[in-house]
Write a structure and sequence with these properties.
- The complex is a heterodimer of chains A (110) and B (116).
- Helix content of chain A is 0%, strand content 59%.
- By secondary structure, chain A is mainly β.
- In chain B, strands 2, 4, 5, 6, 9, 10 and 11 form a 7-stranded mixed beta sheet that branches. Chain B has a 4-stranded antiparallel beta sheet with strand order 1-3-8-7, with no helix packed on it.
- In chain B, strand 5 and strand 6 form a beta hairpin.
- Chain B is globular and about 40 Å long.
- Classes of the chains: A mainly beta (110), B mainly beta (116).
- The interface between A and B is medium-sized, with 20 and 22 residues.
């Protein structure tokens, strides 16, 4: 089956950039997603990228996709304390099902 | 964007009782909804796909007799945890694709279940 891996934890200083990485094994997903989950809450869709794109920028967020290496990343510019949360990458499999990465806990300190 | 709601947001029950969780699409019709389970500090795991007017399809390892899914209308899917036990304590989240946005899946706010 599909494996989607993320590093568990990332700690950054407020104002710095954060880069959250995601690696996967199956490259058939048409879209690749980044979701944010705050403590005790549901999932918030942050952004997504079409599989034929290499990069997508959306305000402070930049998504990079390296299909050859099966690597997806999310860069958050000017990270704020409100960005502290768990971030999940997700891919589509079997046409309409999402498989989630293991999640990266981002901690932003002043 | 599309809104998916869940009810209740929190439920505490005694071991052996059954708990029903509702998932509603508020401003769109959802022929298919998905149910996920998330244990503390873990990722979301797909439990089943709920299909309006037909039987749900369950992922491998998920007991269909324990997690009953009913999708009787285009805006409502329910998940019933039957004879709940402490190991069923988890965060249950539903989601759906929308007709307008075939690229994105919208998630409900989740239901936290604690079985004592």
């Amino acid at each position: 089956g599909e494996d989607v891996e993320q590093s568990l934890f990332l700690s950054v200083r407020e104002g710095d950039s954060s880069v959250i990485n995601c690696t996967y094994t199956d490259s058939s997903s048409t879209y690749l997603y980044w979701y944010k989950q705050e403590p005790g809450a549901g999932l918030q869709l942050l952004t997504y990228i079409f599989s034929n794109m290499d990069m997508k920028q959306d305000q402070r967020l930049t998504v990079l996709l390296n299909k050859k290496d099966k690597h997806l990343s999310l860069r958050i510019a000017d990270t704020q304390t409100g960005d502290s949360a768990i971030y999940f990458c997700a891919l589509v499999y079997n046409t309409d099902k999402l498989i989630f990465g293991t999640g990266t806990r981002l901690q932003v300190f002043p | 964007g599309a809104v998916v709601s869940q009810h209740p947001s929190w439920v505490i029950c005694k071991s052996g009782t059954s708990v029903k969780i509702e998932c509603r699409s508020l401003d769109f019709q959802a022929t298919t909804m998905f149910w996920y389970r998330q244990f503390p500090k873990q990722s979301l795991m797909l439990m089943a796909t709920s299909n309006e007017g037909s039987k749900a399809t369950y992922e491998q390892g998920v007991e269909k007799d324990k997690f009953l899914i009913n999708h009787a209308s285009l805006t409502l899917s329910t998940l019933t945890v039957t004879s709940a036990h402490p190991e069923d304590s988890s965060f249950y989240i539903c989601s759906s694709w929308t007709e307008e946005s075939a690229e994105t899946q919208y998630f409900g706010p989740g239901t936290r279940l604690l079985v004592l």
